[in-house]
């Protein structure tokens, strides 16, 4: 359904983004932010499915500033490679540029759809979706999935500028339930859901996939986007 296009950030950086468009008039747009594995087949399938629900879906390559063409699987070696790429992308010299790339994707979503824009992301992408809700312009809703780091430290102190719905798993050894509770307390305005599932429960290519949790989170997320985006 989708295809890659080149987008340009405010600082002149050119980067690829996977775009899937609906049939007929779009309801709005949803930016889909990758995990640490790049804009791989799973992220592209998420974008395709969102487009089938009537939205323009845009998945920007948020590793483009550190390495082009990242498309990893879920083996131990892929995990190690992804962790290293995330560390490089989170470096102080690079991280602000990644947010500029997300802003460019948001702007492109508004241009292509002619409507409001939401954002969702998974793992590292969940953290970026949370940061986007707090820092970027033009967002009407944000739905982070198991955003690593968003429930602790300086991240929890951020204040979102749009409605937020967050999904977590109670078996996630990367994100403690105590920190999720702290996030819920700090952000009573956010809708926070916890599932009987592990980290990565939405990805049907991972051993941690949980069909029931994935379906429940998707239903809630799409209803949230229908309410706030269109």
TrEMBL record:
Give the domain of life: Bacteria
Q: Which residues form a coiled coil?
A: none
Sorted UniProt keywords: Hydrolase
Q: Where is the Dienelactone hydrolase domain?
A: 15-228
InterPro entries noted in UniProt: AB_hydrolase_fold, Dienelactn_hydro, Dienelactone_hydrolase-like
Annotated GO molecular function terms are: hydrolase activity
- The region annotated as signal peptide is none
Q: Kindly name one Pfam family recorded for this protein.
A: DLH
Question: Record's PANTHER family?
Answer: ALPHA_BETA-HYDROLASES SUPERFAMILY PROTEIN, CARBOXYMETHYLENEBUTENOLIDASE-RELATED
Protein name per its UniProtKB record = Dienelactone hydrolase family protein
Organism equals Comamonas koreensis
